[in-house]
Specification:
alpha/beta; TIM Barrel; binds 3-methyl-2-oxobutanoic acid
Protein backbone atom coordinates (compact mmCIF):
# COMPACT_ATOMS: atom_id res chain seq x y z
CA UNK A 1 0.00 0.00 0.00
CA UNK A 2 1.44 3.38 -0.92
CA UNK A 3 1.58 6.14 1.71
CA UNK A 4 -0.92 7.97 -0.49
CA UNK A 5 -3.74 5.63 0.53
CA UNK A 6 -2.67 4.86 4.09
CA UNK A 7 -4.69 6.70 6.70
CA UNK A 8 -2.74 8.39 9.49
CA UNK A 9 -4.83 9.29 12.44
CA UNK A 10 -3.71 11.28 15.44
CA UNK A 11 -4.83 9.35 18.52
CA UNK A 12 -7.77 11.05 20.17
CA UNK A 13 -6.60 12.58 23.41
CA UNK A 14 -8.71 11.75 26.44
CA UNK A 15 -7.09 14.51 28.45
CA UNK A 16 -7.13 18.26 28.31
CA UNK A 17 -4.58 20.31 26.40
CA UNK A 18 -1.56 21.53 28.36
CA UNK A 19 -1.59 25.19 29.36
CA UNK A 20 0.90 27.47 31.09
CA UNK A 21 -1.18 27.62 34.32
CA UNK A 22 -1.40 23.79 34.37
CA UNK A 23 2.37 23.59 33.86
CA UNK A 24 2.94 25.96 36.74
CA UNK A 25 0.54 23.90 38.87
CA UNK A 26 2.57 20.76 38.07
CA UNK A 27 5.74 22.51 39.21
CA UNK A 28 4.14 23.66 42.45
CA UNK A 29 2.77 20.16 43.12
CA UNK A 30 6.12 18.54 42.36
CA UNK A 31 4.64 16.52 39.44
CA UNK A 32 7.53 15.72 37.06
CA UNK A 33 7.11 17.41 33.67
CA UNK A 34 7.94 15.39 30.54
CA UNK A 35 9.28 17.14 27.47
CA UNK A 36 10.56 15.62 24.24
CA UNK A 37 11.61 17.04 20.91
CA UNK A 38 9.73 16.37 17.66
CA UNK A 39 10.50 17.44 14.13
CA UNK A 40 7.80 16.03 11.87
CA UNK A 41 4.31 14.53 11.79
CA UNK A 42 5.28 10.96 12.84
CA UNK A 43 7.42 12.09 15.79
CA UNK A 44 4.64 14.44 16.90
CA UNK A 45 2.05 11.62 16.83
CA UNK A 46 4.40 9.49 18.93
CA UNK A 47 4.78 12.31 21.47
CA UNK A 48 1.00 12.74 21.52
CA UNK A 49 0.31 9.02 21.97
CA UNK A 50 2.99 8.75 24.68
CA UNK A 51 1.18 11.55 26.54
CA UNK A 52 4.13 13.89 27.08
CA UNK A 53 3.49 17.36 28.49
CA UNK A 54 5.70 19.55 26.31
CA UNK A 55 6.98 19.15 22.76
CA UNK A 56 9.93 21.17 21.52
CA UNK A 57 10.60 21.62 17.83
CA UNK A 58 14.29 21.86 18.67
CA UNK A 59 16.96 23.27 16.44
CA UNK A 60 18.67 19.95 17.18
CA UNK A 61 16.73 19.10 14.01
CA UNK A 62 19.84 20.50 12.34
CA UNK A 63 21.83 17.48 13.54
CA UNK A 64 19.34 14.67 13.87
CA UNK A 65 17.05 15.34 10.90
CA UNK A 66 18.85 17.58 8.42
CA UNK A 67 22.37 16.23 8.80
CA UNK A 68 24.12 19.54 9.54
CA UNK A 69 27.13 19.41 11.83
CA UNK A 70 25.95 22.25 14.07
CA UNK A 71 22.61 23.68 15.16
CA UNK A 72 23.58 27.25 14.21
CA UNK A 73 23.34 26.24 10.55
CA UNK A 74 19.58 25.60 10.50
CA UNK A 75 17.45 28.38 8.97
CA UNK A 76 14.15 29.93 10.00
CA UNK A 77 12.54 28.52 6.83
CA UNK A 78 13.67 24.99 7.71
CA UNK A 79 12.39 25.35 11.29
CA UNK A 80 9.03 26.52 9.94
CA UNK A 81 8.60 23.54 7.61
CA UNK A 82 9.38 21.14 10.48
CA UNK A 83 7.21 23.05 12.98
CA UNK A 84 4.19 22.98 10.69
CA UNK A 85 4.45 19.20 10.37
CA UNK A 86 4.72 18.80 14.15
CA UNK A 87 1.64 20.98 14.67
CA UNK A 88 -0.44 18.65 12.47
CA UNK A 89 0.44 15.70 14.70
CA UNK A 90 -0.15 17.32 18.11
CA UNK A 91 -3.30 17.96 20.09
CA UNK A 92 -2.50 17.91 23.78
CA UNK A 93 1.10 18.86 24.62
CA UNK A 94 2.16 22.49 24.68
CA UNK A 95 4.24 23.12 21.54
CA UNK A 96 7.43 25.17 21.76
CA UNK A 97 9.49 26.20 18.73
CA UNK A 98 13.22 26.92 18.90
CA UNK A 99 14.32 30.29 17.56
CA UNK A 100 17.23 29.53 15.21
CA UNK A 101 20.52 31.36 15.62
CA UNK A 102 20.46 34.74 13.91
CA UNK A 103 16.71 35.20 14.35
CA UNK A 104 16.76 37.12 17.65
CA UNK A 105 20.19 38.34 18.82
CA UNK A 106 20.61 41.55 16.79
CA UNK A 107 17.70 43.61 18.15
CA UNK A 108 14.45 43.47 20.12
CA UNK A 109 12.57 44.24 16.90
CA UNK A 110 14.13 41.27 15.07
CA UNK A 111 13.42 39.02 18.05
CA UNK A 112 9.73 39.99 18.19
CA UNK A 113 9.24 39.68 14.42
CA UNK A 114 10.94 36.25 14.38
CA UNK A 115 9.03 34.95 17.41
CA UNK A 116 5.70 36.08 15.96
CA UNK A 117 6.59 34.52 12.60
CA UNK A 118 7.37 31.18 14.26
CA UNK A 119 4.11 31.26 16.20
CA UNK A 120 1.94 32.30 13.24
CA UNK A 121 3.52 30.03 10.63
CA UNK A 122 4.06 26.86 12.68
CA UNK A 123 1.18 27.08 15.13
CA UNK A 124 3.55 26.66 18.10
CA UNK A 125 2.33 28.31 21.31
CA UNK A 126 5.72 29.32 22.75
CA UNK A 127 9.29 29.96 21.60
CA UNK A 128 12.66 29.05 23.08
CA UNK A 129 15.88 31.02 22.78
CA UNK A 130 19.37 30.28 24.03
CA UNK A 131 21.81 31.87 26.50
CA UNK A 132 21.72 34.69 29.02
CA UNK A 133 23.04 38.25 28.63
CA UNK A 134 21.46 39.93 25.64
CA UNK A 135 19.03 37.01 25.23
CA UNK A 136 17.29 38.05 28.46
CA UNK A 137 16.59 41.47 26.90
CA UNK A 138 15.25 39.81 23.75
CA UNK A 139 13.13 37.47 25.89
CA UNK A 140 11.63 40.49 27.68
CA UNK A 141 10.69 42.09 24.36
CA UNK A 142 9.10 38.88 23.04
CA UNK A 143 7.14 38.32 26.27
CA UNK A 144 5.94 41.96 26.11
CA UNK A 145 4.67 41.21 22.60
CA UNK A 146 2.53 38.40 24.02
CA UNK A 147 4.59 35.33 23.16
CA UNK A 148 5.56 32.96 26.01
CA UNK A 149 9.32 32.35 26.13
CA UNK A 150 11.40 29.44 27.42
CA UNK A 151 15.08 30.22 28.13
CA UNK A 152 18.00 27.80 27.74
CA UNK A 153 21.19 27.99 29.82
CA UNK A 154 24.33 25.93 30.41
CA UNK A 155 25.51 24.19 27.24
CA UNK A 156 23.83 26.27 24.55
CA UNK A 157 24.63 24.50 21.25
CA UNK A 158 24.07 27.62 19.09
CA UNK A 159 27.10 29.20 20.79
CA UNK A 160 29.03 25.99 21.54
CA UNK A 161 32.08 27.22 19.63
CA UNK A 162 32.31 30.30 21.86
CA UNK A 163 31.81 28.10 24.94
CA UNK A 164 34.84 26.04 23.94
CA UNK A 165 32.94 23.04 22.58
CA UNK A 166 30.20 20.68 23.66
CA UNK A 167 31.07 20.38 27.33
CA UNK A 168 29.39 20.72 30.69
CA UNK A 169 28.95 24.27 31.97
CA UNK A 170 28.83 25.84 35.44
CA UNK A 171 31.58 23.60 36.78
CA UNK A 172 33.36 26.30 38.81
CA UNK A 173 31.75 28.35 41.58
CA UNK A 174 32.23 31.48 39.46
CA UNK A 175 30.63 29.92 36.36
CA UNK A 176 27.76 28.54 38.44
CA UNK A 177 27.05 31.97 39.97
CA UNK A 178 26.98 33.43 36.45
CA UNK A 179 24.50 30.68 35.48
CA UNK A 180 22.32 31.66 38.46
CA UNK A 181 22.48 35.35 37.50
CA UNK A 182 21.50 34.52 33.92
CA UNK A 183 18.60 32.43 35.19
CA UNK A 184 17.39 35.29 37.39
CA UNK A 185 17.61 37.67 34.43
CA UNK A 186 15.52 35.31 32.25
CA UNK A 187 12.99 34.90 35.07
CA UNK A 188 12.84 38.68 35.52
CA UNK A 189 12.30 39.01 31.75
CA UNK A 190 9.11 36.98 32.14
CA UNK A 191 10.19 33.56 30.83
CA UNK A 192 7.78 30.82 31.89
CA UNK A 193 10.54 28.20 31.95
CA UNK A 194 14.27 27.63 31.57
CA UNK A 195 16.09 24.57 30.16
CA UNK A 196 19.39 23.72 31.88
CA UNK A 197 21.68 21.65 29.66
CA UNK A 198 24.85 19.84 30.76
CA UNK A 199 25.13 21.43 34.20
CA UNK A 200 26.28 19.61 37.38
CA UNK A 201 23.23 18.15 39.11
CA UNK A 202 23.82 19.97 42.42
CA UNK A 203 24.18 23.33 40.66
CA UNK A 204 20.98 22.84 38.61
CA UNK A 205 19.06 21.68 41.69
CA UNK A 206 20.27 24.61 43.80
CA UNK A 207 19.39 27.16 41.12
CA UNK A 208 16.03 25.49 40.34
CA UNK A 209 15.06 25.61 44.01
CA UNK A 210 15.73 29.36 44.08
CA UNK A 211 13.71 30.12 40.96
CA UNK A 212 9.99 30.66 40.72
CA UNK A 213 9.44 29.08 37.31
CA UNK A 214 9.40 25.70 35.58
CA UNK A 215 12.90 24.28 35.09
CA UNK A 216 13.64 21.54 32.59
CA UNK A 217 16.87 19.57 32.68
CA UNK A 218 18.89 17.73 30.06
CA UNK A 219 22.09 16.44 31.57
CA UNK A 220 21.30 18.49 34.68
CA UNK A 221 20.30 15.81 37.19
CA UNK A 222 16.91 15.24 38.74
CA UNK A 223 16.47 18.49 40.67
CA UNK A 224 14.57 20.32 37.94
CA UNK A 225 10.78 20.39 37.46
CA UNK A 226 11.06 18.20 34.38
CA UNK A 227 13.29 16.50 31.84
CA UNK A 228 13.81 16.75 28.09
CA UNK A 229 15.53 14.39 25.68
CA UNK A 230 16.00 14.54 21.94
CA UNK A 231 13.53 12.17 20.24
CA UNK A 232 16.13 10.58 17.94
CA UNK A 233 18.60 10.08 20.81
CA UNK A 234 16.19 8.39 23.22
CA UNK A 235 14.89 6.08 20.49
CA UNK A 236 18.33 5.19 19.19
CA UNK A 237 17.63 6.61 15.73
CA UNK A 238 20.78 8.74 16.06
CA UNK A 239 24.00 6.87 15.40
CA UNK A 240 27.54 7.73 16.44
CA UNK A 241 28.69 9.64 19.49
CA UNK A 242 26.02 10.25 22.11
CA UNK A 243 26.23 12.78 24.96
CA UNK A 244 26.74 11.31 28.45
CA UNK A 245 23.28 12.46 29.51
CA UNK A 246 21.38 10.50 26.86
CA UNK A 247 19.53 7.41 27.96
CA UNK A 248 18.63 5.24 24.97
CA UNK A 249 15.25 3.53 25.43
CA UNK A 250 15.25 1.65 22.10
CA UNK A 251 17.50 0.78 19.17
CA UNK A 252 15.27 1.95 16.36
CA UNK A 253 18.14 2.51 13.91
CA UNK A 254 19.14 -1.17 14.11
CA UNK A 255 15.47 -2.19 13.74
CA UNK A 256 15.09 0.00 10.67
CA UNK A 257 18.27 -1.24 9.02
CA UNK A 258 17.25 -4.86 9.67
CA UNK A 259 13.75 -4.30 8.26
CA UNK A 260 14.94 -2.49 5.12
CA UNK A 261 17.58 -5.22 4.71
CA UNK A 262 14.90 -7.95 4.86
CA UNK A 263 12.82 -6.04 2.29
CA UNK A 264 15.84 -5.73 -0.03
CA UNK A 265 16.55 -9.47 0.27
CA UNK A 266 12.94 -10.40 -0.47
CA UNK A 267 12.79 -8.14 -3.56
CA UNK A 268 16.05 -9.65 -4.83
CA UNK A 269 14.92 -13.25 -4.22
CA UNK A 270 11.40 -12.68 -5.56
CA UNK A 271 9.79 -13.41 -2.19
CA UNK A 272 8.17 -9.97 -2.23
CA UNK A 273 5.61 -9.04 -3.40
CA UNK A 274 3.52 -12.14 -2.81
CA UNK A 275 -0.03 -12.79 -4.07
CA UNK A 276 -1.41 -11.25 -0.86
CA UNK A 277 0.12 -7.88 -1.85
CA UNK A 278 -1.39 -7.85 -5.37
CA UNK A 279 -4.78 -6.64 -6.59
CA UNK A 280 -7.11 -9.20 -8.24
CA UNK A 281 -9.02 -8.76 -11.51
CA UNK A 282 -12.11 -10.58 -12.67
CA UNK A 283 -11.11 -13.52 -14.94
CA UNK A 284 -13.40 -12.40 -17.78
CA UNK A 285 -12.05 -8.85 -17.70
CA UNK A 286 -8.53 -10.20 -17.78
CA UNK A 287 -9.25 -12.49 -20.74
CA UNK A 288 -10.87 -9.60 -22.63
CA UNK A 289 -7.92 -7.34 -21.81
CA UNK A 290 -5.46 -9.96 -23.12
CA UNK A 291 -7.53 -10.51 -26.27
CA UNK A 292 -7.61 -6.74 -26.94
CA UNK A 293 -3.92 -6.14 -26.40
CA UNK A 294 -3.03 -9.15 -28.50
CA UNK A 295 -5.29 -7.95 -31.36
CA UNK A 296 -4.06 -4.36 -31.01
CA UNK A 297 -0.44 -5.47 -30.82
CA UNK A 298 -0.92 -7.47 -33.99
CA UNK A 299 -2.61 -4.54 -35.74
CA UNK A 300 0.03 -2.01 -34.71
CA UNK A 301 2.84 -4.38 -35.65
CA UNK A 302 1.27 -4.72 -39.13
CA UNK A 303 0.81 -0.93 -39.41
CA UNK A 304 4.46 -0.49 -38.61
CA UNK A 305 5.49 -3.07 -41.23
CA UNK A 306 3.44 -1.31 -43.92
CA UNK A 307 4.68 2.19 -43.09
CA UNK A 308 6.81 3.38 -46.04
CA UNK A 309 10.43 4.16 -45.16
CA UNK A 310 11.24 7.87 -45.63
O1 LIG B 1 17.23 21.80 20.20
C1 LIG B 1 17.00 21.02 21.15
O2 LIG B 1 16.71 19.85 20.98
C2 LIG B 1 17.12 21.56 22.50
C3 LIG B 1 16.94 20.61 23.64
C4 LIG B 1 18.14 19.80 23.81
C5 LIG B 1 16.56 21.31 24.87
O3 LIG B 1 17.36 22.70 22.65
Amino acid sequence: MSSGVRSHTVPQADRVAMTLPRLEEMRRNGEPIVMVTAYDYPSATVAEAARVDLVLVGDSAANVVLGYERTDLVSMEEMIVLGKAVRRGLKTPLMIADMPMGSYEASDELAVVSAQRLIKETGAQCVKLEAGGVSARRARAIVAAGVPVMGHLGLTPQTATALGGYKAQGKSAKAAVKLYEDALALQDAGCFSIVFEAVPAEIAATIAARLDLVTIGIGAGSGTSGQVLVFHDLLGITTGHMAKFVKQYADVHAEMVAAVGRYATEVRTGAFPGPEHAYAIDAEELAEFRRQVDVDALASAKAWEWEPLS
